[in-house]
UniProtKB/TrEMBL annotation:
SUPFAM superfamilies: all-alpha NTP pyrophosphatases. This is phosphoribosyl-ATP diphosphatase. It comes from the Bacteria. It is an enzyme of class 3 (hydrolase). Belongs to the PRA-PH family. Pathway: Amino-acid biosynthesis; L-histidine biosynthesis; L-histidine from 5-phospho-alpha-D-ribose 1-diphosphate: step 2/9. InterPro entries: HisE, PRib-ATP_PPHydrolase-like. CDD domains: NTP-PPase_HisIE_like. Keywords: Amino-acid biosynthesis, ATP-binding, Histidine biosynthesis, Hydrolase, Nucleotide-binding. It comes from Hyphomonas polymorpha PS728. Gene3D superfamilies: MazG-like. It catalyses: 1-(5-phospho-beta-D-ribosyl)-ATP + H2O = 1-(5-phospho-beta-D-ribosyl)-5'-AMP + diphosphate + H(+). One of its GO terms (molecular function) is phosphoribosyl-ATP diphosphatase activity.
Amino acid sequence: MTAKAPLASPARLAAALTHLAETIDARALEGDAASSWTAKLLAKGPDAAASKVAEEGGELAEAVRRESDERVASEAADVLYHVFVALRSRGVALDAVAAALEKRQGTSGISEKAARPPKD
């Protein structure tokens, strides 16, 4: 099966992700769990954030299998949001994620995976 369309528009996504990261940081600093889902989730800690990443990842997988392109995009947005919140809950900077992606550039996914050390 071939992809329907190229990923394209990385600048638009980068702008949206920048706004998302800034919003999450602002909500974290405000810490108002009564009015902010982000602050509420961060207050619950990394375990709660991890659970949401898993839940939303499953919903994205189901959408990819069975639902409309619009639903896939919506679920992907949910996953990205919850990944950012999870990173913030652990204090992992987006720069660390960027560095991990940069390290993989120019390497096939098969080669990169084969070179990983075994998990404990």
